[in-house]
Write a structure and sequence with these properties.
Number of strands: 2
Radius of gyration: 22 Å
Shape: elongated
Order of helices and strands: EEHHHH
Strand order of the largest sheet: 1-2
Strand content: 5-15%
Length: 112
C-alpha cells in the first residue's frame, strides 16, 4: 500500500442508548491527500510546480517529457497510438466526434 493511501470508510462501534446494544456503523473518511496539500485526489498545477522545485528529476510531478525517436518509450507510444486508433475507429460516431470522450483524452495524454 502507498503511504498516502487511506481507507474510504472506517468502522465505528456505537452503543444504542435505547437498547443498550452495541452497533457497528461505518462512516466515510477523508480521501487521498498528498503531502503539503489540502485537496484530495490528484495534483494541482501549483502542487506540481512545488514538487518539481523540491525534486526536479521526479516523474510524478509534471507532464510527460519528450522521448527520443526509436527509443523504447517512443516504440511504446507508437504501439499504444496504433491500438487506440483502432478503438477510436470502432467506437460510435458520438464518441469519435466528441473531443472530450475518454479515448480522445487518453490519446491526448499519450500525445497521439
Amino acid at each position: 500500500m502507498s503511504r498516502y493511501h487511506q481507507a474510504t470508510h472506517e468502522k465505528v462501534i456505537v452503543v444504542n442508548p435505547e437498547t443498550d446494544k452495541k452497533e457497528i456503523k461505518f462512516r466515510k473518511k477523508e480521501k487521498l491527500v498528498l503531502p503539503n496539500s489540502k485537496t484530495p485526489g490528484g495534483m494541482t498545477k501549483k502542487m506540481a510546480r512545488g514538487g518539481r522545485a523540491e525534486n526536479p528529476i521526479s516523474r510524478s510531478t509534471g507532464k510527460g517529457g519528450k522521448v527520443k525517436p526509436g527509443s523504447k518509450a517512443a516504440n511504446r507510444r507508437k504501439s499504444y497510438c496504433a491500438r487506440s486508433l483502432g478503438q477510436l475507429k470502432r467506437s460510435s460516431a458520438k464518441t469519435r466526434n466528441d473531443p472530450n470522450s475518454r479515448i480522445r483524452q487518453a490519446r491526448r495524454r499519450w500525445k497521439c
